[in-house]
Amino acid sequence: MSTTVASVQFEPVFGAVDSNIERMEKLTREASAKGAKLVVFPELCTSGYMFSSRSEAYAYAQPANGETYRIIQELCSQLGVYVVYGFPERSEDNALYNSAALVGPTGLLGVYRKNHLWNEEALYFEPGDKGFPVVNTEIGKLSMLICYDGWFPESFRECALGGADIICMPTNWVPIPGQREGEQAMATILAMSNAHENGLFVIAADRVGVEREQPFIGQSVIVDHTGWLLSGPASDQHEQILYADIDSGTARRQRCWNNFNTPLRDRRPDQYSRSVSRPI
């Protein structure tokens, strides 16, 4: 069964949690009106990204079932949609995580805590401790990754081995060294290659704008399970909603490439000891 999905690229305002959530509500309604059943927002879109201290990050953090969740859940229930959004999570023991929540019509379905922290995130957040959960929904089996996780093939592979059909990836992609003028962003290339290698749909929602002197590159994408773009890359400067129709069952049926090869089945874990267990 085909499902319309949306990647929402917008520009959160740092610290303006209430107005950011209002924007998310408006954009979710817009996407739903165009048929989207699954709507993905950027990383830390409720708060903004460029924290100056752990205490500042803590000030904007909420429990996974906090006020933001309650607002989004009511919206999901009303519209019959699923929403993935990034937020700073304050756990019960007051640890801080760069997290993403999956909310559906019936409530909070899953929380992912970013496993691979980028740059000064390591000063404010704890590394994820929930692995790579897979959530079974009516539109397919969903997993979540966040931004820098996309540079680790193990992230996508763990989701695929857990049975995921669709990766929802809130991001805050920044310029990286060596990016050539006019070339496609490495972030989008990695999303495409990992979708191809694992037979997964990837919905990557980035932000745009400049926050506390840090520019963000936009270029959100929706990628087919074969690795080719269904929609995007979006603008590198402007807000934009990408749409695509996907069938999660197709990903499962087509993971067998021919009579002999299925990448997930063809793995050789007995030969991978260094890559999976030995630190550098």
Automatic annotation (TrEMBL):
GO molecular function list? acyltransferase activity; N-carbamoylputrescine amidase activity
Keywords attached to this entry: Acyltransferase, Hydrolase, Lipoprotein, Transferase
Q: Which Gene3D superfamilies match?
A: Carbon-nitrogen hydrolase
**InterPro entries given for it?**
Aliph_Amidase/BUP, C-N_Hydrolase, C-N_Hydrolase_sf
> Mind telling me which Pfam families this protein's record contains?
CN_hydrolase
* Enzyme Commission code(s) on record: 3.5.1.53
Identify the residues that the record assigns to the CN hydrolase domain, covering every copy: 3-248
Which EC class heads this enzyme's classification?
hydrolase
Please indicate which superkingdom the organism of origin belongs to.
Bacteria
Q: What is this protein called?
A: Nitrilase/cyanide hydratase and apolipoprotein N-acyltransferase
Q: Which organism was this protein described from? A: Bifidobacterium psychraerophilum
